[in-house]
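Moderator note: this is an archived Q&A kept for reference. The question asked for a predicted structure of one protein chain; the sequence and the answer are reproduced below.
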Amino acid sequence: MATGKEDKAKGTANKAAGKAKETAGKASGSSKTEVKGKAQQAKGELQKGKGDAKESQKKQR
């Protein structure tokens, strides 16, 4: 099971990779790549939120 910091790092990486895909899709005119990039960014946001929640929960203990 990943720690909060690991989830946050993975989330940040997914957001960055997704943004790059979205930009590449826009530049090449590929709406499919653009949508995949947006989806990856959303996944990254969720991972980051999960990491934040884990760290918050850990601090409360």
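Archived answer notes: The chain has a mean pLDDT of 95.
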